[in-house]
Amino acid sequence: MESQTYLDHLINDHSLIERALIMLEKQANKREDIYISLAFTLIDFLEVYGDSCHNRKEEEKYFPYLLKKGFPPMGPIRVMLEEHDGERKYLAELKQMLIEKEQTGILNENFHNLVIDYVNLTKNHIWKENDILYPMGKKFLNQQDGEYLQKEFEEISFEIYKDNGYQRNLRLISTLEKQAGGRVNMLEVLPYEVIQNMLDALPVELSFVDENDIVRYYSKQDEKKIFTRSLSVIGRTVQQCHPQKSVHLVNQILSEMKDNQRDNAEFWINFGDKFIYISYFAVRDKLGKYQGCIEMVQDIKPYRELQGEKRLI
């Protein structure tokens, strides 16, 4: 696994917290039909991982270190600390309401609204940290500072979980999502045509072969492509779609991807007046099971000629 920076620790924490918030909100929308056990587990996760682990990384290590390096004390940090306190108050109230629900069988009528207020506060808090505070903080820290904070964050995780808290809680959240009906699907709100047009708008040609090496998709169906493709390739094996002299490479790449020995492969060639970059990426589910391979083809000659910077339209 690629080594994690101090910011990776914080942003990965946020990702799991956001997934828990979505599930808690779904439970609150069920009103009296709430799944109490799941709601308790989510509240516990948000208290332990979200507050005792993540917020502690910030309050005990990250924020003080930024201030020591000259970060303004009355800026975003003060707001973040106030919002941490607000999150704790919401969680304490929500937990008490769930306890009362277990004891009396009646859910406090304010539970739903309280969850919505808590979720909105925390989502906005995460956005402010990811998009404002963390980028500002990077300007005050050098590589050695980042390595120091990474160590400090890891010590907090090991103190609480005796291992890497992220991996343990990633498994927990993934399991809870299955119980709650799956992760939020951001694509389900988009019409099929929009998804297709999104893929075709990218300056690359994409194709996908499934776990059985069968070609299932390629982009830019009605456009001129670097490597000609037609509908006749759909349903055929990818080996049938490559010159015989390169089939052994195709087989090697796919075999190593299926055996979890490889996640990607890349090649580049001169092709007429173009310089073609060809890359392959393994597609896996959240448990690491191989689902297929994406091929991406792109003429990168224009990018190789770029110089300096362009910051304006």
- The strand order across the widest sheet is 2-1-5-4-3
Q: How many strands appear in the DSSP assignment?
A: 5
CATH level 1 class label of the largest domain: Mainly Alpha
According to CATH, the homologous superfamily of the largest domain is: nmb1532 protein domain like
| Gross morphology | globular
- Share of helix, binned: 55-70%
Under CATH, the topology of the largest domain can be stated as: Four Helix Bundle (Hemerythrin (Met), subunit A)
Per CATH, which architecture of the largest domain?
Up-down Bundle
Total domain count: 2
Q: What radius of gyration results from the CA coordinates?
A: 24 Å
Low-confidence stretches: none
| Percentage of β-strand residues | 5-15%
Mean pLDDT: 92
Question: What is the straight-line distance between the termini?
Answer: 37 Å
Structural class: alpha+beta
Give, in order, the helices and strands: HHHHHHHEEHEEEH
Task: Tell me the major beta sheet.
Answer: 5 strands, antiparallel
Count every helix, treating DSSP H or I runs of 4 or more residues as helices: 9
Short description:
The protein is α+β, with helices and mostly antiparallel strands and 313 residues long. The chain has helices at 6-29, 36-68, 76-104, 111-138, 143-161, 165-179, 192-201, 247-258, 301-304, and strands at 205-210, 215-218, 264-271, 274-284, 290-299.
